[in-house]
Amino acid sequence: MSITSTPIPLDAPVEFRWSAFALDVLELTKPRIALMALIAVVVSGIVARWGQPDVWLMLHAVIGIALVAASASASNQWLERELDLAMPRTADRPLPSGRLTATFVAVFSVITAVAGLCYLIRFTDPITALLGAVTWLMYVVIYTPLKTKTWMNTGVGAVAGAMPVALGWHAVGGAWDARMAAMFCLLFLWQFPHFMAIAWLYRDDYAQAGMKMLTVVDPTGQRAGVQAVLAAAALIPVSLFPVLYYPGLGSLVYLAAALLLGLGQLALSIHFFRSRTERSARKLLRASLVYLPATLLLLVLLLVLHP
């Protein structure tokens, strides 16, 4: 690794060096993705127990799942360190930039995975830990290698991305019913408009690294646009399903807001399909980042307003 042209003074504060190291470790965990997953875990736990979950049990689930998710993200970056180096948008990540070593990241991944699974076994139950292990394997062992082999990797990644629903649901002892299936489908389908927008924006990077994203296999973007539109359309009835279980004023509020969010995302998906420009992709990406947390918040409000 080359020495920087501006050497750090010998009397530089130790706290600064440790803070930079801590930020690199945090980046390994992909905190924004992890936060979205943990929000899904919490909301799933709340919905599973009809608005009255065991708070301590849910907290233990969040801690254990956060550790497993951190391991999965770090393992993903360990496996893709050479691919990340080939893409401008990821070349400055801790591993390809050389700020963290491959050995450190491998050890970090093992420790967080073992700690997370053991924590889930101890403070929730073995089935929740098993679901966590399945999610880790699906994301690291199946999805990550598939990215260089087939465009269908997105579907596998979407299943792994929806697994926090099952984890949160089971951790609090919720019965596996149609409500859980609807929430799982919600997270699964949401990822297609979200990922297709990202895949279009960074299609040149993916092609340079040899990743078989749909926008690389089909450079016209038509197939990516179709997937975004179909998933956004399917999300509307799926998102409205919970009103069948919560009659009353709360359902009307939820129905109106969820319908508005769904139609908005669908309109931007259609716009992306028709134009396939960076501007339309960025609009769809922003809409997807609003849609999911807003819909999950609406589910919580629906429970609060339900008599």
Quick description:
The chain is mainly alpha-helical and 307 residues long. The protein has helices at 14-28, 31-48, 55-79, 81-86, 102-123, 126-146, 153-171, 178-201, 203-209, 214-217, 222-240, 249-275, 278-305.
Produce the secondary structure layout.
Blueprint: H1 14-28, H2 31-48, H3 55-79, H4 81-86, H5 102-123, H6 126-146, H7 153-171, H8 178-201, H9 203-209, H10 214-217, H11 222-240, H12 249-275, H13 278-305
Helix pairs in contact: 2-3, 2-7, 2-8, 2-13, 3-5, 3-6, 3-7, 5-6, 6-7, 7-8, 8-11, 8-13, 11-12, 12-13
The proportion of residues in beta strands is under 5%
The number of distinct β-strands equals 0
Q: Assign the structural class, choosing from mainly alpha, mainly beta, alpha/beta, alpha+beta, or little secondary structure.
A: mainly alpha
The CATH class label of the largest domain is Mainly Alpha
Number of helices: 13
Distance between the termini: 63 Å
Reported by name, the CATH topology of the largest domain is: Tetracycline Repressor, domain 2
Topology pattern, helix = H, strand = E: HHHHHHHHHHHHH
- Main beta-sheet strand count, sense and barrel state: none
CATH fourth-tier homologous superfamily of the largest domain: UbiA prenyltransferase
- Average pLDDT taken over every residue: 92
In total, the number of domains comes to 2
CATH architecture of the largest domain: Orthogonal Bundle
Unreliable spans are: 1-16
Q: Roughly how much helix do the residues carry, as a percent range?
A: over 70%
